[in-house]
Design a protein that fits this description.
Elements (H helix, E strand, L loop, with lengths): L2 H22 L10 E2 L13 H9 L2 E2 L1 E2 L3 E2 L1 H5 L4 H5 L6 H6 L3 E6 L5 E5 L5 E5 L8 E5 L2 H13 L5 H8 L9 H9 L2
Antiparallel strand pairs: 1-2, 3-4, 5-6, 6-7, 7-8
Length: about 190
Amino acid sequence: MNATDFLSRWSNLIMEKKAEAKAAGVPDITDDLQLLTAPHAILNDPIFPEASARFLVEAGLPRSCAPFLSFDAVARGPLPLVQLYGVHQFSQPDASRLAAFYVLGSDGAGNPLCLDAARGGEVVMLDHEDRFRTRTFVASSVATLAEALLIVETFPLADFVQHLRSCDPPAAEPSAFLPTEVSMLND
């Protein structure tokens, strides 16, 4: 999926959600779904994958959405994890190990969702409680993450993994981040 397609589909989703809220007489909560874009400067970062940078500049990711995700960091940078948390927080070996991770957002527990520039732009969750040692696969790219977020918002949750498998098979694996998080929405 390209940035233009995502923008169109996400805009349609927001219009549908607004109409549903109005019809139900409930407050409109679509402000959280508004897309945040990255500053153009990310296009000049030689380490940040170009396709991911273009997607974030042209389309962006939602401020927050299911499953308990926030992408406020996109509008600020995205910044390298070590820079965001402060280089003084890390030993030299840890700073080197984490140098390729750019923070896109966070999960509901405060763990950063990062683009791994050393792995072609994979998106991963790093567990902050073990000093970012545990790495859980989220999506193969920023674009496939965006498509997965559309799937969460537009299809029955029971069908999420099946639809995710069609656009990003590794992200649909049971050990990946999204299947576990989306399953909690069903509870």
